[in-house]
Amino acid sequence: MIQIQSVQLGELTVSEEDLITFPKGIPGFEEVAEYVLCNVDETYSYLQAADQPEVAFIVTDPFLHFQDYEFKLSDELVEELQLSEEKGLAVRCIVTWNSDPARVTANLLAPLIFNVTDRIAKQVVLVNTTYQTKHPLSSSLSSESGES
């Protein structure tokens, strides 16, 4: 077990098997390679840097909010992340949080792609798409707020 400090979540005790490696980091955070995914609720998680307490991203499964969200992974990415049908694949998008629910957005242009089995991941910038870095989540948030 290892200890991880988090500004948002306090001290975390996680197994080394919980670490997710971004071999090239995340754009803008290239020097940070290891993260842990901490579920907040059924919709949101923190992607917390293992060795930098102040580096954490709120992420969500885009398919929970945008049922028609789709893209094709390049052959190079499939090879780089060693993806196959036997290995689990997960997609998350970074969320920009705001105290005003109408201003909460998701970055659909640059999803995080995870090889769940080998615990490696990469943020990919999609090309030839209309997706943007700030897609409003307000419609999905308002429908969820009635359930809580």
From TrEMBL:
Q: Where in the cell is it found?
A: Cytoplasm
The top of its lineage is: Bacteria, Bacillati, Bacillota, Bacilli, Bacillales
Principal place of residence:
cytoplasm
- Its biological function? Acts as an anti-CsrA protein, binds CsrA and prevents it from repressing translation of its target genes, one of which is flagellin. Binds to flagellin and participates in the assembly of the flagellum.
Species of origin = Saccharibacillus kuerlensis
Ordered alphabetically, the record's keywords are: Bacterial flagellum biogenesis, Cell projection, Chaperone, Cilium, Cytoplasm, Flagellum, Translation regulation
The record ties this protein, via InterPro entries, to: Flagellar_assembly_factor_FliW, Flagellar_assmbl_FliW_dom_sf
The record's HAMAP family line, in alphabetical order, gives:
FliW
Query: Encoded by which gene?
Result: fliW
UniProt cross-references to Pfam families, sorted A to Z: FliW
* Name used for this protein in its record: Flagellar assembly factor FliW
Which PANTHER family does the annotation name? FLAGELLAR ASSEMBLY FACTOR FLIW
At the top level, the lineage of the source is Bacteria
User: Which family does the record assign?
Assistant: Belongs to the FliW family.
Subunit structure, interactors included: Interacts with translational regulator CsrA and flagellin(s).
